[in-house]
Amino acid sequence: MTTITAREARRCYNAHHPLHAAYYFAPEHDDLYAGLGLERGPMSYLAGRAAPLGPCTAGVVTAVFYTFHPGLVRKLLPPAWRTATPERILDTRLKIVDACLTRLLGAEAVASREMAEAAELALRAAEACTQHGRPLYGANAGLPVPAAAHLAFWHATTLLREHRGDGHVSTLVSAELTGLEALVTHTATGTNWRPAFLRRTRGWAEAEWIDARRSLHERGLLTPAGALTPQGADLRRAVEADTDRLDVAPYRHLGTAGTARLTQLAGAFSRTVLAGGGLPLQDIGRL
Questions:
Q1: pTM passes above 0.90
Q2: CB burial of residue 20 (10 Å; 0-12, 13-18, 19+)
Q3: Which residues have CB under 8 Å from 57's CB, separation 6+?
């Protein structure tokens, strides 16, 4: 069995994740979903990400997304399904990815041998993902692999992202952190989206955020000012370590050389994406 450390697996994930995440922040995202009649912002996000699950209830999406306000999901998702079917949304999703990656990387890069190689490696890694207890991964795994290399690569990075995310949710449940508490403690590390960004996109009121901080302080996880206590920092490290542990299998399957090569190829593409403003990096970090 190939020995891959959690650090090597995490490094590879960090290398390819911006390729997946750029889709959510691309101007094409809201523009093309608006063409289906969906509202810009959270409705388009929720419908686009949940579409592989089918026209499921707000309760299902609240459960699997974990950090979104249940009221926001109840408000936006049923109207989204009445406006556009999941099949139309999924078709539009690939059009968004095509436009986004072609704009950020250039036509030559998306048609390159390096892109085809990256897609092959990422798809091979995803072969070792498991569906048990991983609903978002399982739903995406049931979709066909697109023919174009850059779309196949994005599809594979989506499988890897949702596989990791499903595992992360299980660690948060084990740590007895609610979805809101998970957001509050993660922002306290200074390595996640800023609180104002998360409240706006996930539907939490400032008063609810303050109440969560108060509860976490009473548990000894936050200081009165909202910083992590040593106990809180230990809990967040344990959550991330468990998430890494549950996410090693795809990269172990890919092997040391394959993982290193995917990290190299994906890292180069991601640097181009980030240099082109593919992610709103100004919204990451402490207030």
A1: yes
A2: buried
A3: 77
